[in-house]
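Changelog-linked ticket: 2'-deoxycytidine-5'-monophosphate example.
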Amino acid sequence: MSKAIPVIAIDGPSASGKGTVAQQVARILGFHFLDSGALYRLVALASFAGAQQHSEAELATLARELDARFDGDRIILENKDVTDALREESCGRHASVVAAIPAVRASLLARQRAFRREPGLVADGRDMGTVVFPDAGLKVFLTASAEERARRRYKQLIEKGMDANLPSLLRDLEERDRRDMARSSAPLVAAADALMVDSSKLGADQVVELVLGEWRKKQNRVL
Ligand code: DC
């Protein structure tokens, strides 16, 4: 029964640090890890191939039939390593657009739930605690001010030797936040029972400790 398999859901806006935190928590607990944003980014990337515009129904089919796999920290689309292409800002921006289409979200639902395997899963995204795993044992909603998130994204890009412009990153993040929060299907919103964590003044390690502490508390209560 997959419902008995524990899930920790970590949701929040772009660049809130949830990916880093979710990955570390998963590694420490020996759990599987789902980067659900990567699935939306894959749909966006796959839709760039060819010059034609896709209808919503075509994008939903693309999402359902996505020939993608996660191989350690690499992401493979149709036998091609697309890990770096997925992290591009243009891909994130377009992912947020395709993610607003209800049929695309529906196409990705079963694929996301299939990540729930023994001994457990840490899932990161926007609707992990509200829609995909509403029965998650722990739900965390990670936020940080838009300015702080833009600064972090800027640092990441510069460290990778990529071009970056702070004001345009901030504008982009704010636009994505607006779109992710305003859509009618599974908008970015904290689950009523989520633990709210503002990471503006916390390092990733401190947030990881906080999440693990909360998880252990919950486990002790169950035992
Ligand atoms: O987490 P990310 O930046 O890789 O996500 C890219 C986009 O995908 C994000 O702007 C909104 C969308 N997304 C979503 O709608 N639901 C999720 N569970 C994860 C991501």
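Closing comment: Example verified and attached. The longest strand covers residues 138-143. The mean pLDDT is 93.
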